[in-house]
């Protein structure tokens, strides 16, 4: 059943345990420094690929997100059911750059009502486990605070973080092979670090022909080293990495932004 109007959306947000509505937001929240000026628009509909078509004709891709895929069963169904409720509603739009090759504009969207209350769509989707944080092709997150919203869903083990969901074990190469070409969050311990001219390899096993590895492009690795990340600091460290899985000799994914490598272990790494 389609829910119409702001009160219905408010009730739905509270029902599923989403983030609280923000009142009278007059300044961009922390972490939106790569977003442009806010403009007003209206949602026309969402499309099969997860894009949101606005009344102005602009096709929006929510920045810093990877929406649950349709094959994610109940998670994908609930995501698309909720997106179906948004048609006709007013939004504030903050662009995060030019259109991509598919003419999709990366942006943040807030649902708005006349009294100034807003619902941050990205934060809501991430906190419900219907989307995972993903920098995509950017070398940094526009909204690193979304990782805190994602932690809510992970702690509740809902949506993408439920049984048989994320994170995928780095020590499960066969399971990772099944994810070829798909986004995944992978967790495991870094066994060795191999610095090469074009990229650095974070190896999660000793058999390079079989075991999972994450790669870091040269430019990003140089920036990470300037921020104090070193091979010595990473060896033996329990981490979480995310990106699109590719099968070469073994499963691998490329880390596109520093925030896509999360340290899961405080204190010194194991030898």
Helix content: 10-25%
Rg from C-alpha positions? 19 Å
Whole-number count of domains: 2
Major sheet attributes: 8 strands, mixed
Describe the structure.
There is one protein chain. Strands 10, 11, 12, 13, 14, 15, 16 and 17 form an 8-stranded mixed sheet that branches. The protein has 2 domains: 6-160, OB fold (Dihydrolipoamide Acetyltransferase, E2P) (Beta Barrel), CATH 2.40.50; 167-263, Nucleic acid-binding proteins (OB fold (Dihydrolipoamide Acetyltransferase, E2P)), CATH 2.40.50.140. The chain has helices at residues 6-15, 74-83, 121-127, 146-156, 173-177, 218-226, 231-234; strands spanning 22-23, 38-46, 52-54, 59-62, 65-67, 90-95, 105-112, 117-120, 131-133, 168-169, 183-189, 192-195, 199-203, 213-217, 238-247, 251-254, 261-263. The protein is 21% helix and 30% strand. Mean pLDDT is 86; it is low at 1-32.
Write the layout of secondary structure elements.
Blueprint: H1 6-15, E1 22-23, E2 38-46, E3 52-54, E4 59-62, E5 65-67, H2 74-83, E6 90-95, E7 105-112, E8 117-120, H3 121-127, E9 131-133, H4 146-156, E10 168-169, H5 173-177, E11 183-189, E12 192-195, E13 199-203, E14 213-217, H6 218-226, H7 231-234, E15 238-247, E16 251-254, E17 261-263
Parallel strand pairs: 4-7, 10-11, 14-16
Antiparallel strand pairs: 1-8, 2-3, 2-6, 3-4, 5-9, 6-7, 7-8, 11-15, 12-13, 13-14, 15-16, 15-17
Helix pairs in contact: 3-4
Please outline what is shown here.
The protein is globular, with a radius of gyration of 19 Å. It contains 7 helices and 17 strands.
Give a quick set of tags describing it.
271 residues, alpha+beta, OB fold (Dihydrolipoamide Acetyltransferase, E2P), 2 domains, 8-stranded mixed beta sheet, 5-stranded mixed barrel, 17 strands, 30% strand, disordered N terminus
